[in-house]
Each structure stands twice: as C-alpha cells, then as structure tokens.
Design goal:
This protein is α/β, with parallel strands linked by helices and 430 residues long. The chain has an 8-stranded parallel β-barrel, surrounded by 4 helices. α1 packs parallel to α2 and α3 packs across α4. 23% of the residues lie in helices and 17% in strands. It comes from Lojkania enalia. This is 1,3-beta-glucanosyltransferase. It is an enzyme of class 2 (transferase). It holds the Pfam family Glyco_hydro_72.
Length: 430
C-alpha cells in the first residue's frame, strides 16, 4: 500500500511503511526486511471485473484470511480505472499481498493465432500503473494458462515478449522493481520445456522474474512421490528464478486435507519452491470454495445469481476444508534464508530445442515485437531448426498430466474455473 504519513504535534511528520515490499534475488523472494518470502495464498475473484473495489467486503474477507494464515491473494481481473486504495490498505493491514494478472477479459494472449499488440500492451500497462503504487503488490502475471497443448508452444515467445515489454515499461517509469511472471497450466508434455524457456537466455531483460504452475496433482491421501511432486521438484533444482504453485488444491476425493502443504513447505521443496496459492476462496458449483456467503439459493428466484451462489456478505468457513487448511498452515513456518546470507550461483537454463509435436519453438529465437502476429514470417523464425527427435535432449517430465480428478477445467476467460457452475457464473457476470 502507499506509505502513510502520520502527523504528530510533538514529533512532527513520520512516514510509516505499512508492509514490507517483495522483490526477487536469484531463485527466491525476499521482503524488504531481508527475510525469505513463501507464498501462502488464496485465489480471490468474487466477481468478474474487480473484487478489490468494495472495501466493506474486503474487510470481512481479509479478517478471516488472516485467521486462516493467508499472506497472499491472487486476483485474475481488475479494473485499472477503479479506486483500489481501500481494499489494498485493508489487505496490507492484514499482512496480505496481491498477485494480480495484468490482462483483461479481452486482452489475454491466445495460443491459437497468438499476437502481442499495442492494445494489449496499453491495457497491461494501465493495470501496472494502478497497482505499482501499493507496497503490498507482490507480483504481476502476464498470462494465465496461455499454453495448454503442445502445438500451442508457438505462443510462448509472445508471452515472453509481453514480460519483456512490461519489465521495460516498469523500469522506464521508475516503478518499484515488482516481479513480472507467468502462471502456467500443468501440462506434462510442455514441462519442463516451458518453464526453462521462460527463464533462458543471456539477456535478463527478456526472461521472466518468476514462474508459477497451476497444479492439481496431489489428491486425497497421496504422497510426495505418488503425486508427482518429486518429479516437479527434480525439474527445478537448478532453476534460477523463483517458482511456486499459483493454483493448487485438488478436491476429489473430498474433503480436502491439504496434506500437500506439508510437502510444499517442508524440507524437500522449500529449497526450490516458494509456496502455493489455494484455489479458491468462494464456494461455487465447482466445489472448490473455502468459504460461503450464505446458503445456496434457488437460481430461479427473483434476483438470484444463475448458479445460486452468493458472492458477497459475511464469509462462513466451510468445514472441514477451511479448518484443515488452517491447521496445516499453522504448523508450517519455513524460515528460509536471510537475504544477506544468500549469494545466488544458478545460471539460466538452456533454451529448449525444437522437438516436433512436443516443443515447437527453436531455442532462444528473437522475440516478437509489439504488433507482430503469428504469420508465416514469424512462424518461420520461431520454428526453423533441425528437428530434435522426440524424447531426446530434454529433461524428464512428470508422468502425470496435472489435471487430477476433480481439478478445475482451465482457461475460460483467462481464469481457471471448474465445470458447469463457473461456466454459469461467467454467463451471469458477462
């Protein structure tokens, strides 16, 4: 949030920073106080356009999130023209940071016929302009699950170009060095090529500041090995930028016990991972909610939402999921390393080579400029290479596809959603 000036008749004016800021050093996040930061987050998109303008609602939710042990929220869409000072101040007072997607409903990068143009850039810039002023803005996403299939890999240079241009804009405006990253779908055939591509290259201005993954692999009474978390971790032990789970929380079988949090914040993963964001805060038909705002109503009733789930009011924890997560987080407090004691030594990974039907981008190709679309010339520059036989020259990927039973169906209007209920919700919102 913005620094607050307190005027005291005896002591004069004193500037107080309400919350430490977050930055990147090497493969870790640190607060401005020098402590390593681990994300304990919740996905928070109550309404389609902007959940951060109703401070009365923010106060109710922030208080309960603080009790839960939350230190972050992820918001998928905001209105850059709205006033966010009240909600951002409320969350800062509760010790909660924001990870916000820069795209809007009509400016996201598409994997089919990808492009990156001035309209998209200006829209992303407006969101950055608004939220850079708040100390509890922890990071920006330039995309959410843009790539969901192998032949969608040709969109990766456009995502990376967006990150390049937003980082350059941030620096040209002398904004705080707020990290810029990407939230990826957990697609085994694209991992780990995608995460390596987003960090590769000798030009740091073109690589992401962080990478994150929407993974629903640990379901029910699973384990570090059975879930595939061990494979995910083996693929990032030499990763040179921070990585965390930007969505997780498999809900089948239910109830959710959130035992995966023990692994994420345990000794096997904290040297390499920076936490997780649980999907999601509100209860909807997809049954991922941690709270509800009252009982479900008949969608046919006058004024009722189409799916029957109210999206405002006093939040009521859903049992046993809410207390299960709370009990996990209360026992998991990784200390990490002090920034002053940390000297990064990792270097960027090699840019993955072209592999037919697996990763159709030719290593460290020149990124598209603003205004370029995926025409024949761009396609030629991205994909031209000597084909690498499938299965050679690439790190191993998890045997699972990541979309565990009960996990949300992805990429509806750029936000991860679940099945019929959230589809109905989007018809209502739009």
């Amino acid at each position: 949030m913005r620094s607050v000036v307190l005027t005291c008749a005896l002591a004069g004016a004193v500037v107080v920073a309400a919350i430490p800021t977050i930055s990147v050093k090497g493969s870790k996040f640190f607060t401005s106080e020098g402590d390593q930061f681990f994300v304990k987050g919740i996905a928070y998109q109550l309404v389609p356009d902007d959940p951060l303008i109703d401070n009365t609602q923010c106060k109710l939710d922030a208080a309960l999130m603080k009790d839960l042990g939350t230190n972050s929220i992820r918001v998928y869409h905001v209105d850059p023209e709205a006033d966010h000072e009240g909600c951002m101040s409320t969350f800062a007072d509760a010790g909660i940071y924001l990870w916000v997607d820069l795209d809007t409903f009509n400016t996201q990068i598409e994997q089919d016929a990808p492009h990156w143009n001035e309209t998209q850039l200006e829209a992303f810039q407006k969101v950055m302009d608004e939220f850079q002023q708040f100390d509890n803005t922890a990071g920006f996403f330039v995309g959410n699950e843009v790539l969901t299939k192998p032949n969608g890999s040709v969109a990766a240079p456009f995502v990376k170009a967006a990150a390049r241009d937003l980082k350059a804009y941030r620096d040209s405006k002398n904004y705080r060095n707020i990290p810029v990253g990407y939230s990826a779908a957990d697609i085994a055939s694209l991992r780990p090529m995608l995460q390596n591509y987003m960090a590769c290259g000798t030009n740091a201005s073109e690589s992401l500041d962080f990478f994150s993954l929407n993974a629903y692999e640990w379901c029910g009474d699973s384990s570090y090995e059975q879930s595939g978390y061990d494979e995910l971790t083996r693929n990032v032990t030499d990763y040179n930028i921070p990585i965390f789970l930007s969505e997780t929380g498999c809900n089948e079988p239910s109830p959710r016990n959130f035992e995966d949090q023990t692994a994420i914040f345990g000794d096997e993963m904290t040297p390499y991972w920076s936490g997780s964001i649980i999907y999601e805060w509100i209860q909807e038909a997809n049954n991922y909610g941690l709270i509800k705002y009252g009982e479900k109503v008949d969608p046919a009733a006058s004024g009722a939402p189409p799916d029957g789930f109210t999206r405002s009011g006093t939040p009521t924890p859903i049992s046993p999921d809410f207390p299960n997560l709370s009990n996990q987080w209360k026992t998991l407090t990784p200390s990490g390393v002090k920034e002053s004691d940390y000297t990064p030594t990792l270097t960027p990974p090699p840019c993955p080579a072209y592999t037919s039907d697996v990763w159709e981008v030719n290593g460290g190709v020149a990124l598209p400029s603003v205004g370029q679309t995926f025409d024949s010339a761009v396609k030629s520059s991205i994909t031209a290479s000597t084909t690498v036989p499938s299965g050679t020259g690439q790190p191993s990927a998890s045997p699972t596809e990541g979309a565990a039973p009960g996990s949300p169906i992805k990429e509806v209007q750029g936000m991860s959603v679940g099945l019929l209920g959230l589809l109905l919700g989007f018809f209502w919102w739009m």
